């Protein structure tokens, strides 16, 4: 079952840092993580940690001149001395309070020079952190919130980790940032798991608590559990109002009684599954409607089955219901509907739900992931002008 860390950069910001640590403990969190705690004496933080028994998972390096638009220093050419000073400061504070990781913030930069200096500073950080048993983390930020930030995607971060090639350099995988920029959060997490040092979450797109929005955290938490991830997940969301009033999710969606794998297996046992070669042979059948429920960014990035329509998973129950104000006539035809996602998990759960509503449908058993290799045609959207 998942357990959670309170990110005190966003939660209980109305309290002093020691009191926020105590509040997190009282609320049931098993760890805390910090943004920039340097204004609080480390001894005061230590006292609260000792009282509560909570570990600190990590903290960030200083951002630099925030009023001047800086958001980190480690990828800024000609700021190597400042970047190393920020790394030294973070490591010293982390050591004093027993934090397990330091997030080295890249900053707003671009180009080869930025890439080179970032790698150099990361090697410095890793060398300094290794004797202390501290992990160095890097985190891509989504382009909507931080358009000029150097580190933009998980692929870019993974390539940097591979290039630096130090065992204590890891990826901070934030479901919120990945969800806003790349989509397909679980596929990305699964592919990058060996690079991941910490996982964070918040709703998409508003960065609120995980009980609403585009990401289904019941499914995501269960899938993370199935990946055998046992470390606390970081609740880095922005509460509207007092933090304590936003914690209902800890007693609802986080208390999982069934894994995602079990849910998918049960769904597959009662729905119709279509093999890829059979659907390829039926592409010209006018009585078949293929419905792509992947994130729109997956569809744009990987292409799509010719003639398929896109329908967001979060709206399907409303789109297929004739009594809903959001009903789509395309789902009112006397045709065979075949739904697909990337690997068949989401579509299996979706079709099981639609079956419960009385809507007859099937799903593509292996999803889009093996479509092209089995000879299926693929189209790509027209590039935007």
Radius of gyration: 23 Å
CATH architecture of the largest domain: Alpha-Beta Barrel
CATH class of the largest domain: Alpha Beta
Spans of at least 5 consecutive residues with low confidence: none
Q: Write the CATH fold name of the largest domain.
A: TIM Barrel
Assign an overall shape.
Answer: globular
Full CATH superfamily name of the largest domain:
Divalent-metal-dependent TIM barrel enzymes
Structural class: alpha/beta
**How would you write the strand order of the largest sheet?**
2-1-8-7-6-5-4-3
Amount of helix: 25-40%
Would you list the SSEs in sequence order as H and E? Answer: EHEHEHEHEHEHHEHEHEHEHEHEHE
Beta-strand residue percentage? 5-15%
Q: Characterize the largest beta sheet: strand count, sense, and whether it forms a barrel.
A: 8 strands, parallel
- How many β-strand stretches? 13
Distance linking N and C termini: 46 Å
Notes on the structure:
This protein is α/β, with parallel strands linked by helices and 385 residues long. It has two domains: 4-257, Divalent-metal-dependent TIM barrel enzymes (TIM Barrel, Alpha-Beta Barrel); 263-370, 3-Layer(aba) Sandwich (Oxidized Rhodanese, domain 1). The chain is 34% helix and 13% strand. The protein has an eight-stranded parallel beta sheet. The chain has a five-stranded parallel beta sheet with strand order 9-13-12-10-11. Strand 4 (101-103), helix 4 (112-129) and strand 5 form a beta-alpha-beta unit. Helix 9 (260-268) crosses helix 13 (345-356). It is globular and about 70 Å long. The chain starts with a strand and ends in a 21-residue tail after the last strand. The relative contact order is 0.09.
